[in-house]
């Protein structure tokens, strides 16, 4: 068999090798190509989807009988979304509960989360956070006639916490003798307290103050400031990892609004009354 004939006989085999090499090379190129930044995708789609709380007065809740949401975080979401995409009508707010916000974000069902998401080292391994838009603190809501004046008074008793919240994890680590009842909805915490099923509701000062602002029975409760007992709770906007363009745009927008005083104005009504003197630390015993 001459050289040409032998080459022709091997040609199909060589073609398979060549195609296989080309396919492998293309696959490697695609795998190594950077994914488009989510900011580009948002602008291309003409829509930004933002997860917000559905039931938290003062922060974010659905407007009764109407489409849309109201509250400080809902307003912030519309403001930031408009800055990203240039049109408030292209901002979609989606109600998310505390336990589901991370999963919905990672599955791509929402683009951002603005829902009292405390920046913690554990969460920073899973998502990227913007700079904080507000600094919250731990607080407790108690019946007005409660004998609880410090955290140790709650040992052996139950408190209500939001499932998946930073408060839930903090009390588990620091006060394991305080038992917990978890609720998926933020409003579930105060409902358990109303029914006498727990001794206190543990949450952020912003959330408790917001809930009290609309509670017709607010005189049934009193606040216990435990801010000095735990680290502060910086709330940030959460996004999926590896989207530096979107993260930079969020940080720029928040920094601009901070310099204008807009963020302070939004969240000022949700601050706890100041606790003076040594009483701020007495609650930590």
What does this protein structure show overall?
Residues 1-8 and 10-33 have low confidence and may be disordered. This protein has helices at residues 3-32, 38-45, 72-85, 101-106, 121-124, 166-174, 187-194, 205-214, 244-260, 262-267, 279-282, and strands at 48-52, 55-56, 60-62, 69-70, 91-95, 112-113, 128-129, 134-136, 138-143, 158-162, 179-183, 200-204, 221-225, 233-235, 238-239. It has a five-stranded mixed beta sheet, with helices on both faces. It has 285 residues and is α/β, with parallel strands linked by helices. It has eleven helices and 15 strands. The relative contact order is 0.16.
* N/C terminus separation: 96 Å
Order of helices and strands, N to C?
HHEEEEHEHEHEEEEHEHEHEEEHHH
Structural class: alpha/beta
**Major beta sheet, specifics?**
5 strands, mixed
Q: How much of the sequence is in beta strands? A: 15-25%
What is the molecular shape? globular
Determine the mean pLDDT. Answer: 87
Spatial extent as radius of gyration: 26 Å
State the strand order across the main sheet.
11-10-12-9-13
Number of helices: 11
Task: Provide the helix percentage.
Answer: 40-55%
The parts where pLDDT drops under 50 for at least 5 residues are: 1-8, 10-33
């Amino acid at each position: 068999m001459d050289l040409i004939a032998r080459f022709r006989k091997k040609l199909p085999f060589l073609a398979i090798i060549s195609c296989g090499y080309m396919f492998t090379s293309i696959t490697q190129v695609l795998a190594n190509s950077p994914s488009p930044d989510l900011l580009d995708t948002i602008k291309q789609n003409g829509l930004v989807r933002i997860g917000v709380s559905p039931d938290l007065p003062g922060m974010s809740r659905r407007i009764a009988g109407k489409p849309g949401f109201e509250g400080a975080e809902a307003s912030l979401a519309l403001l930031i979304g408009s800055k990203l995409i240039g049109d408030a009508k292209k901002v979609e707010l989606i109600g998310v509960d505390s336990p589901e916000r991370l999963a919905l974000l990672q599955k791509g069902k929402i683009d951002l989360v603005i829902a009292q998401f405390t920046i913690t080292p554990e969460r920073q391994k899973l998502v990227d956070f913007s700079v904080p838009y507000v600094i919250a603190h731990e607080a407790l809501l108690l019946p007005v006639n409660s004998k609880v004046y410090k955290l140790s008074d709650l040992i052996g008793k139950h408190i209500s916490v939001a499932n998946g919240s930073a408060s839930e994890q903090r009390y588990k680590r620091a006060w394991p003798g305080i038992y917990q009842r978890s609720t998926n909805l933020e409003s579930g915490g105060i409902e358990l307290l109303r029914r006498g099923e727990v001794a206190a509701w543990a949450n952020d000062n912003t959330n408790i103050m917001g809930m009290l602002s609309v509670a017709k029975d607010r005189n049934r409760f009193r606040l216990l400031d435990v801010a000095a007992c735990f680290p502060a709770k910086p709330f940030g906007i959460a996004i999926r990892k590896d989207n530096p363009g979107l993260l930079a745009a969020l940080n720029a927008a928040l920094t601009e609004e901070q310099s204008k005083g807009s963020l302070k104005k939004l969240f000022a009504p949700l601050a706890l009354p100041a606790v003076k003197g040594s009483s701020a630390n007495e609650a930590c015993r």
